Each structure stands twice: as C-alpha cells, then as structure tokens.
Amino acid sequence: MVKQKSKIDAEATGSLLENLVLARIERDGPITAYRVRALIEASPTDALSSSTGSIYPLLRRLQARGLLERGAARDGRGTRLLSVTEAGSVQVLRWLLSDDGARHLAEDPLRTKASFVGRLTPAQRRRWLRAALRASEEKLAQIEAFFEREALPEVDYWAHENAVRLMRARIGWLQTWLAHEGGGGASSKTNSKSKSKSKTRTKASKEDR
Fold first, then answer.
1. How confident is the model over 20-74, as pLDDT tens digits?
2. Which of 4, 8, 29, 133 has the most CB atoms in a 10 Å sphere around its CB?
3. Are 68 and 88 spatial neighbours (Cβ–Cβ below 8 Å)?
4. Distance of CA 78 to CAs 29, 55, 71, 84, 113, Å?
5. 59: buried, middle or exposed (CB in 10 Å: 19+, 13-18, 0-12)?
C-alpha cells in the first residue's frame, strides 16, 4: 500500500529556485534584488548560477503572489530592500518540512552518456573518461575554493559537504571505470587534498558543538 504524502508535503509548491530565493531572503534579508542575484550567480551549482537572468522576473512574480515585499528600508544607494511576507515565511517552512527531493535522482549528464559509450572505441572511451575525470576534479576544486572564499557559516556546512561528497563519488566512479578500461584511475592529488580538507572541517565542526 502506497503511503499518502503528508499535508505539509502536498502543500509545498514552487520551483527549487523560487524556494531557494525565498529561504535566502528570509535568512539574510532584508536584502536588495541585486544582492540576491549576486549570491545565486556565485553558487558553484551550475543549475543555479546559470539561472541568474531569471532572478529579477522571479522576484517580481514572488512579490505579485504576496510572498515578498519591498519595505521602507533602503540600502546605502537608496535601493529598497526585499523581505519575505508572513505568507512567504509559511512557504519556506512548508518547503523545508516537505520530503520533496528525497526521492529525486538528480540529472547527471555523465550518467546519461554512460548508457551510450558502447558506440565509442576502447581508446575513445579512455580519452573521454580521462577528460571527464579532469573536469570533475576541477569542479571539486572549485567547490572547495568557494567554501574557503565565502567563509560559509556552520549552518551551510552540510549543504557544502553534500556537494563535495557527490563530486568525490563521481570521481571515484570515473576512476574505477577508467581502471576497468585499462587506463589507470589512481586517486588524484585533488581528491586527496579534498579529503584532508573535509576531515579538518568535520573536526572543527564537532569541536564547535
């Protein structure tokens, strides 16, 4: 028998980007629309950083739906600041308490391609795997650099750790596959450095508690 979703889960609406923007403004606001856009643009998550052109229209839609408002407060340049309304706070809570995403297998272009690489010759597969491995290691380094540069608060630690572990898992998968293809696949220096950094952050996080 299929379990019915909770009322809270059923009521959770809106796209991931909409809910992310609402949650960010609730936590960091009042805030300018420009600052919201800058925060999204700086994200190492490609699906978010590539959506910056839609931020201003999205903010207008959220205001029209009564989830955001521009208050009387202004920044140093005279720009009115955005804050969430009571309805916006309720929406954020619904989104956080829902299990939306827990059943979701995120899109992965490499995984999709993997179903069709039988069309390639063994040499082509090895070249493709090496290129994918290098790109994944570069992405992991970018995520690590973002964490160090932005000095994210502890509340963001587990979100960042999720990104790091997903990239490590992808790198491990590619290394194993490349070794199976006879192309090596030993652990990279980038991956080793990432593990060391993560252990340091985990230790610091536990000590803070």
1. 999 999 988 899 998 898 888 877 777 665 566 788 899 999 999 999 999 766 6
2. 133
3. yes
4. 16, 20, 12, 19, 49
5. buried
**Range from 99-113, 127-141, 168-182 carrying the lowest mean pLDDT:** 99-113
- The Cα 120–Cα 123 span in angstroms is 8
Residue pair 168/174 in contact by the 8 Å Cβ criterion: no
The number of residues in the chain equals 209
pTM: 0.69
CA distances from 189 to 91, 117, 173 (A): 43, 27, 16
Domain residue limits, the chain = 7-97, 109-204
Dihedral sign computed on CA atoms, order 101, 102, 105, 109: positive
